[in-house]
Fold these 2 entries.
Entry 1:
Amino acid sequence: MINFSDPDFVANPYPSLKELRQHGKPVWHEELGIFLAARYNDANAVLRSKTLGRIFTPKEPESQWNEFNWLHSDSLLDSEPPKHTRLRSLVGKAFSRSRIEALRPEVERIANLLLDEAENKLASNGNFDLIADYAEPLPVKVIAALLGFPDEDEHLLRPWSQSIVKMYEVSPSVEAQHEAQQAAHEFAEYVRALMHKRKVEPGTDLISELAVVEEAGEKLNAQELIATCVLLLNAGHEASVNGFGNGMVATFERPDQLELLSKNPRGVADTAIEEFLRFDAPLHLFERTATADTEIGGVMVREGQKIASLLGSANRDETIFDRADELDLSREQNPHIGFGAGIHFCLGAPLSRIEMSASLPLLFERFPNISLAETPKRRPTFVLRGYESVIVD
């Protein structure tokens, strides 16, 4: 059975995930006490089933986990209907598709500024870091602008986010737990102060809009608003950073695909980003709990039992994707579930797609001969899969 902490598995989980799919049904993982749905149809069914809920279990109520607990229990990600329906309706009114599409010029402006800085680093150092200098700051700056965070505070956001999301891994260390507690407290208090300020002096930012948005007499309470803002940053930039970084490294390692992208970056961008998300998924495991006995792929998940949708495995399922283990940036038929499915389909998916589809061609138009300067450094995590550093020249 899979050892999720094995460095070899974390470095390349796909051979083991392929073996898991060959069981033909969800498999029970004794150590974790959870079913693993590795096949596409099973993983998709887990995400869409109405009797498999995203049930957040508080960590030591009335403890140092207090802020961490309600940041999750009052968020879209960890709630179910009817609460989830109310939250998604309210947040969706402010975080509309038209509002997100209107951000494209701002995304391109920020991307070009970051590329200017990268160009300076390339001239002075001979290289730059595709993650730290481009893929990582871009979505953070975009979401910070969307929420109305002051420019001088942007440096706080990514460390807070990274500390919190480490708790989504299979076995977070004690040190990671302490960092998550502290980050949750600091992040929540920061957004709370901004929320109070926006209620007195509203602006055009999303926090101001979330503070007044209303539907059928319902509004977001303070904790729900804060949890929504924290979720938008955490989930909203992790997919973009890791999806972009994973896809770029895979492309660098395949000269034919790198040539395809460098010769026609705007023509290939849309299919390329979808293939990035399919080929080496930024999110690999999404856990659900049965609220009633539920059959998935011929296996009965009893009420109270857990089952995980293995998104990265599903996106490599040979019965769904032609040449599933090959990177094809021009792939047309690509029904990947990199952003999830069902009621928990990622609310920020349109923003992530705009960020990636805008930033990818701009990168290659500025640096048409970009290539790896050294071996990329991968983050030692499975659930949220990505790179710490990708040095290019």
Entry 2:
Amino acid sequence: MTAPAAPPAYDELRKLHRDAATLNSVGSLLGWDQETYMPPAASAHRADQQGLIATLTHERKTTPRIGELLATCEAAKPSDPDIAANLREMRRDYHLATKLPGELVAELAKTTSLAQDAWKEARQKSDFALFAPWLEKVMALTRRKAECYGVPPDGELYDALLDEYEPGMTAREIDAIFIPLRTRLSALVARIAKSTKKPNARLLDLKAPQTAQHAFGLDILAAMGFDLNAGRLDTTAHPFCSGMAPGDTRLTTRYNTDSFLEPLYGTMHEAGHGLYEQGLPKESHWGEPLAEAVSLGLHESQSRMWENFVGRSRPFWAWALPKAAKHLSPLLDGVDLDEIYGAANTVEPSFIRVEADEATYNLHIMLRFQLERELISGRLAINDLPAAWNKTFKDYLGLDVPDDRRGCLQDVHWAFGLVGYFPTYTLGNLFAAQFWEKINADIPDLDDRMTRGDFAPLKAWLNTHIHAHGRRYRAAELCQRITGRPLSADPLVNHLNTKLAPLYGV
């Protein structure tokens, strides 16, 4: 006899998850407002608001009724694979949420809200000492959270945090990927540094008004397929995307009037996240795992793909250069396709991660992975972070860090308590490269389409093969299903060599 597709308890379970997701979206809206339009004097009360919302959301997620309903539904052994996937992931979420005491959740929300404002001031003044006490508090609370989750067998405390963002991944597995990848990337960067053939990088320093950059960015968003009727683009100190609810995906970027390429790629990066959020089946599965991203590595694969594999490609610039010239006139008068393509792919070690080129970017990530792992373990004291950062940066990228603003204060992630997040950027690059090979096999005329500004087939492919699944599959399984093989560094290294070797003659 076939098991029922949906146990009666399932509808109630879905409603409880929708309610929790709605409360959580209120917290997301508060966070977005704090980073965009909130007046500075509101920070203390905003921390109280965030603490209360986090407490209420946690209570909803950990109510014993969810445990009862899950047990009832699981016992019914539903035959519908979507329901089975939802129940599997709901059980995981409930298991993790019930390990955290409510007071810790509230304290983390309040502390990180205040820490964000401390970080902004410290970054502006390039003074780590202003942020250090808050980072001490955030790391202590984050360490407590990891302890509540528990150390996996043969693992370490960091694994418990990494599992939040990349389920099933461990620091040891990250090491196994990063260590050989660092060797290959360092060798490529060294060959490029010795080359006498260089793209003309003068376009990197062209000054463009913020209003013109914003208008150009909106044109690019529209071409990519980001629905501005269901989203918006604003400015902030550190770009981010918040897919807070059905029909509401917020993008932020930051503008640099000394360079128009950096803001463009920041906007395309966040739009890649936004397309993933808009592609998830939120209307039909709001609050359920089927309407959520499978992992941050997969999420980053979408942003890095649009930023780099599309935005730094020759076909993209064949289409985009006339639009850029129109918006930024007369800055690009006389600039040809070879020049803009070369400038977009300039390789040069630099201080700021979000401004880094494709070849050096992952070295920035490896540095952060190493340091935050040591911070959580207690092997690295907070006050020793700037010196450790500067030394490691010199080892990895060969540069002497001039100040805290361009060193350990450049990212907001640790103020948010996002420890274990950074490795997902490199995982995203790896996923993106492997998916890109499959995309080009499935859409053999993709370059021609991008030259005409037709990105619809690419968006449709991503919607079908990645976005529509939500958390139906884990990231590694999804990669295997799509590409027919496990995640590998080879496609990324091949991509970089194929693109950069002709530009630099290496």
